[in-house]
Design a protein that fits this description.
- The complex is a heterodimer of chains A (277) and B (291).
- Chain A is built from 13 helices and no strands.
- Chain A has 277 residues and is mostly helical.
- Chain A has one domain (68-240, 247-276): Orthogonal Bundle (MetI-like fold).
- Chain A is globular, with a radius of gyration of 24 Å.
- The mean pLDDT of chain A is 89.
- Chain B has 291 residues and is an all-alpha fold.
- The longest helix of chain B has 35 residues, at 2-36.
- The model of chain B has no long low-confidence stretch (mean pLDDT 89).
- Chain B has one domain: MetI-like fold.
- Classes of the chains: A mainly alpha (277), B mainly alpha (291).
């Protein structure tokens, strides 16, 4: 469905949309410029540009939050959680599809059905389970929890995708003496690349930005993630807006850069994930 | 026989990890949530007593929960409509041959990749500082109020920020659906004398129904689960007026130590959400047309 003619009303619409987009961007612009101001400048006017673009706030925040450590925590949690989820879900889906039967069916359907359970229903007992297993305040603990929470959607998407792949290739590899592991890692995994990208993007965005699970399971300074760290500047009695805006800028820039570089894949992935899910 | 056991072992090795983590992290907590909801326990002490239906009876009298339930329903209703209307309108416009189309799409989608907590903090700054400054300069009464400390304004500030944050996502899904509408079908309708509105209602809308089903589902379920913005932007306030169900359960469980009562509320929440989304999806699936 395309509208080919470009006339004066299209131009008007275009200008209107550009104005709207600028307004859309304004809150982020506010965040960026106020991170460069001194406290007094922020209090005097939030709209005015800073007199000098000074990096003082960023340095203070960097040290106060131990931002490097926090950033590394977020990276480790996101990457290991996503890679682990991809591996265990693709492996399980492979056998569940290729070895159909009552057991496979029951496993698949129960995991699928759990997609409807909201996290908030699980979080109260989850904290108890996590305490018993020593998963509180530990990176490996939260990673294992993300593996659990990541499985249902990943399994569902892999399951659908693998069903569409003909078996002939795997059978040929089997005849050539390839074992099940060989077939999976050498033949099937490369074929799964499109759906793997989709799942990786959906899960990365979710885990990188997730707040509630870290909030209830990570409280020590050494395990904090970026959203948790930013929370510090928004306690009940703080109004150090200049530092807060610097912290938010530092929180926002990595994900915006990631988005701008990966935009095509992200939008494709999100559309594919939503349509299938 | 030997190859049979070997096959079984391969199956177990491939399937077990996913099954174990699912059981540990989702299934066990889910069953425990149901169990806790019939018990009386503060989450810490060693004696757990059976409570029967007491927790559920308490929910019936819990005005705080009713209030958060009412807030959440209103919030879901308003955001579902606005996200879908604006998402669809943006998609329609960006489906036209505008020169800056790709740039605009990026701009509208951009907020979605940022975490809602960060978004909440950003807007806290906007509502308290920027609005005050605009108010001073223009003397418009709308900007002279403190949006986050007046209940009805706090509600709308959550709605505005939610729409700003997620409308790009709804736009992208509608856009993908619109691009799937075949041009020849529209031309045929035009030749048959169908005007702009008729083409929209009778050709485009039926063809993008699947996207509508998805978008309504997403808006409803994410609206019900709203937590991050309520936490970061309004802290449930003023006077608990923006306490979503999720935030209410969080407060009960983790700040008031009402472990078992919170579990009962969590179970009720699950039943309501599952019921509503199942009804919505089955009702709308029936209306979809196959191409």
């Amino acid at each position: 469905m395309k509208n080919g003619r470009y006339n004066i009303s299209t131009l008007g619409l275009e200008l209107l949309m550009i104005a709207l987009a600028l307004m859309f961007f304004f809150p982020l612009y506010m965040t960026f410029i106020n991170g460069f101001k001194s406290y007094n400048e922020v209090v005097t006017s939030v709209v005015a540009l800073p007199e000098v673009f000074q990096l003082k706030n960023f340095i203070t925040v960097w040290k106060q939050l131990n931002f490097f450590g926090v950033f590394i925590n977020s990276i480790i949690i996101t990457v290991v959680s996503v890679v682990g989820t991809l591996l265990i879900s693709s492996m399980a889906s492979y056998q569940l599809v290729r070895r159909p039967g009552r057991v496979s069916n029951v496993i698949f359907l129960s995991i699928l059905a759990s997609l409807i359970i909201p996290f908030q229903t699980l979080m109260v007992p989850l904290v108890k389970v996590a305490k018993d297993l020593g998963f509180i305040n530990s990176l490996h603990g939260i990673i294992i929890m993300y593996w659990g929470f990541g499985v249902p959607l990943a399994l569902f998407l892999y399951h659908g995708f693998i069903k569409g792949i003909p078996r002939e290739l795997e059978e040929a590899a089997h005849i050539d003496g390839c074992g099940t592991f060989g077939v999976f890692f050498k033949i099937l995994l490369p074929l799964l690349k499109p759906i793997t990208t989709t799942i990786a993007i959906l899960h990365s965005l979710w885990i990188w930005n997730d707040f509630l699970l870290p909030l209830i399971t990570l409280s020590s300074n050494s395990t904090r993630t970026i959203p948790l760290a930013a929370n510090i500047y928004f306690g009940q009695y703080t109004n150090e807006w200049h530092l807060a805006m610097a912290a938010l800028t530092m929180a926002v820039v990595p994900i915006i850069l990631f988005f701008l570089f990966m935009q095509r894949y992200i939008i494709q992935g999100i559309t594919a994930g939503a349509v299938k899910g | 026989m030997k190859s049979g056991t070997r096959k079984l072992w391969t199956y177990v090795i491939f399937v077990a990890p996913a099954l174990v983590f699912f059981t540990l992290i989702i299934l066990v907590p889910f069953l425990r949530a149901i169990l806790y909801s019939f018990q009386d326990w503060n989450g810490i002490s060693s004696d757990i007593a059976w409570a029967g239906w007491d927790n559920y009876a308490a929910i019936l009298k819990d005005t705080g929960f009713h209030k958060s339930f009412a807030f959440t329903l209103k919030f879901v209703f308003v955001t579902t409509i606005l996200l879908n209307v604006f998402g669809f309108l943006l998609a329609l416009v960006l489906n036209m041959s505008l020169k800056s189309r790709n740039l605009l799409r990026t701009a509208f989608f951009l907020p979605y990749v940022i975490g809602p907590v960060i978004i909440g903090f950003i807007w806290q700054f906007i509502f308290t500082n920027l609005f005050a400054e605009i108010g001073k300069a223009t003397e418009w009464s709308m900007f002279m109020k403190n949006w986050l400390s007046l209940p009805s304004y706090a509600f709308w500030s959550l709605v505005i920020v939610t729409v700003w944050h997620s409308v790009g996502y709804f736009m992208v899904i509608y856009l993908a659906a619109l691009q799937g509408v075949p041009a020849d079908l529209l031309e045929a309708a035009e030749i048959d004398g169908a005007g702009r509105w008729k083409r929209m209602l009778n050709v485009v809308v039926p063809l993008i129904r699947p996207a509508m089903t998805i978008n309504l589902f997403l808006a409803i379920s994410s609206g019900f689960k709203a937590f991050d913005l309520n936490f970061a932007l309004t802290r449930g306030g003023p006077f608990g007026s923006t306490e979503s169900i999720a935030y209410h359960i969080y407060l009960d469980a983790f700040t008031k130590n009402l472990f078992t009562l919170a579990s009962a509320k969590a179970v009720v929440f699950f039943l309501v959400l599952a019921g509503i989304t199942l009804v919505q999806v089955t009702a709308m699936k029936r209306k979809e047309v196959e191409m």
